[in-house]
Amino acid sequence: MRISKTSNGLKVQAIAGTYVVILGIDLPEKKCVGLMGFSLHRQDHSEAEGYYLEGMKCFQATDPGAPDGSRFSTKDHPVQDFTWSDYTAKPNHTYTYTVCALTGNPKALTAFAKTEVTVTTESPISDEHEIYFNRGVSASQEYVRRFGDVKPKKTDLPNTPKFKWLSRGLYEAIADYIESCVPGIHTLRIAAYEFKYEPFAQLLRRTIDRGVDVRIIYDARKKEPKEANELLIKDTKLSDFCTGRKNGVSISHNKFIIKLEHGVPIAILTGGTNFSANGIFGHSNVAHVVKNSAVAKMYLDYWELLKLDHPLKGSQQENTLTFPTPDLANIPVGTTVIFSPRTGLGALELYRDLAMKAKNGFFMTFAFGINKLFKDVYRNSTADLRLALMERKTRVFNKEDEALKIAEEADIQALRNMPANIFAIGNLIKTNKLDGWVLEELAGLSSNVKYIHNKFMLVDPLGPDPIVVAGSANFSDASTKKNDENMLLIRGNTTVADIYLGEFMRLWKHHSFRESLSFKSVHDRFLKTDDWWKKYYQNTDNAARRKYFSNNQ
Q1: Is residue 234 located within the same domain as residue 110?
Q2: Where are the beta strands (DSSP E) in 163-295?
Q3: Cβ partners under 8 Å of residue 120, min gap 6
C-alpha cells in the first residue's frame, strides 16, 4: 500500500509492505534552514497504542548517558535523514505516522511543519501471492539486545526464541504449507538443492506417515551437498520417497514445493531458501508462495522433466522448448515462469533488458558478484536511482586468483563512484567502544554465504507497472545454462513490489550503515547541529533517495 500527503510543504510518502513501512520525506530546500531533523510518531490502530519511534543517535548536548546499543526517542533526538523505515511494523495492521519537521536547538526543539499518513500493512495471507522474508541479520544490534552474545546452534529446534526471531515467519510458513495437506486430497512434489535441516525432513516424514503422497528430487551430483542430503534422507527414513538428480547439470539448485489437490496443481512455494538451518535462519532469504493453478502446472511439468534426470544438453533443450523465454515487448501482466538450464543466455539477457528499461529506480541483489551484463546496466542505465545489495565485492577469493580479484574489485569500485549507483556490501559492526554500538557476531550457521543469499531484481517498483524477478537463480551465466533453476517474473503487481522493496531497503540500509562504519576508526554517535540537510539537495545519492522515496521525480 502506498499513500502520500503534504502539509505546509512537508511531504510524506508511506510505502507499506508486510513487516516494513518506508517513509519518504521531502521539504522545499528553503524551508530546511535550521532543520534539526524529523520526529516520528506511530499510532497503532490495530493494537490501540501510540508512541514515538526510536533511533540510535542522540544530540551530544542532551546525551542521557545511556549504555552502548541504546535507542533514543525521535521526539527529542530526531531522524536526520529524508528516508526512514519502520522495521517493527506487523502484518495487517493500520498505522498513522505523524512526521514533524523540527527546528530550534537540542534542548528546545519545536515543530514548524507536521504531516500525518495512515497506511495498512499487507497480510501474508492473500489470494495469489504470499511472501515471507526471514530476518537475515543475525549480526545486528537487536539480536544482541535480545539474546546477548549467545549464538544459535544448528541443532536448535525451530520454535526456540532465537530461531523464531531469525525465521520471522519464514519457517512457520513452510511448515504451515506442508501441514495443511490432507491425506487423500493433497500431494507434494519437492525439488531441493540443500536438504539438510532435520526438523524439515522430520516434518515431511510425519506428513508421509499421515498418508500424504510426497516425492522429493534432490541434488546428488557432487560431494557437497550430496553427502549431507543423503545422510539426512537415510536418518529420517525418506529414501523410498527421494530421487537424486545426478546427470549432467552443474548443480540442481531449485528449492520449491508444489502442492496438488485431487491431482491438480494449485500452488507452489519457491524462492532462494535452501532447506537448511542457514538457509532458513542465517543469511537473508525469501519464501514466495504463488496460488495460481497455471503457474503450479508449469512447475509440475518441470518437476517431471527433472525426475527423468536427462543430461545437460537434453535438459537445456527441454526447458528452452517447453518454457520459451518471453519477448521483451510482450511480457504479460501477472506471473511468468522461467526454468533453467537453457540453451543460451536469452533469459539472462531478458533480465538485463528489463533492467535497462528502468526509468526511475532499479534495485538488485547479488550473492556471488555482479555478472558483466548487469555491470553494463549499472554503467549505462538512465534510471535516477540504482541500488545494489551484495554479499561481497567479488566472487573471486582464491589466493591464486589475487590479480583477478583486484581487477574485479576495481571494476566494482568504478561503478560505485557513479552518483546514481549506491551499493551496499554485507558487513557487521566489529565495535568501537567510543561510538555507542555493541559488538555483533554472525550466527555461524554457514562458512560460505554469510549475509546476502537473495536473488531478486526490482524495476521501477514504485511505478504503476513494476517488475519483480525472483527465484533461485543468481543472475549468472551458470545459473542460466548449467544449473537447474526457477524464476518468477511478476509484472504489474504493486503489492508484491512494495513488499520486496521494503525488504530490500531493510537489508540495504542494515549493511550500508555497517559498511560505512568500517571506513572510520572512530565513529560519530551524535546527531548534527549544522546544515546536515544540504547534502540532500546536491548532486548526491542522498538527494536521489529523497526524491525517489518521496515521489518527487
Answers
A1: no
A2: 186-192, 213-219, 242-245, 255-261, 264-271, 286-290
A3: 1, 16, 92, 93, 94, 95
Residues 330 and 183 in one domain: yes
What's the one-letter identity of residue 256?
A: F
pLDDT greater than 80 at residue 434: no
CA 181/CA 187 separation, integer angstroms: 7
- 284: domain range? 129-515
N residues, the chain: 553
74 and 42: one domain? yes
How many domains is the chain built from?
2
User: Of 59-73, 84-98, 171-185, 369-383, which gets the smallest average pLDDT?
Assistant: 59-73
Q: What are the φ and ψ backbone dihedral angles of 477, each rounded to 5 degrees? A: -60, -45
- List the strands of the sheet with 94-105, edge to edge: 49-52, 37-44, 94-105, 108-120
DSSP state of 328: G
- Cell numbers given for 528: 548534527
312 with 377, same domain: the answer is: yes
The Cα–Cα gap between 286 and 274 comes to 10
Predicted TM-score (pTM) of the model is: 0.96
Separation CA 537–CA 543 (nearest Å): 5
Whether residue 231 is predicted with pLDDT greater than 70 in this model: the reply is: yes
Q: Which residues of 213-225 are buried (b: 16+ CB within 10 A; e: fewer)?
A: bbbbbbbbbeeeb
Same domain assignment for residues 320 and 188: yes
For residue 406, what is the domain's CATH number? 3.30.870.10
* 3-class secondary-structure state, position 47: coil
Same domain, 293 and 389: yes
Q: Which amino acid is present at 487?
A: M
3-state secondary structure 446-497: CCCCCCECCCEEEECCCCCCCEEEEECCCCCHHHHHCCEEEEEEEECCHHHH
Say how far apart CA 308 and CA 302 lie, in whole Å. 10
42 bridge partner residues:
51, 97
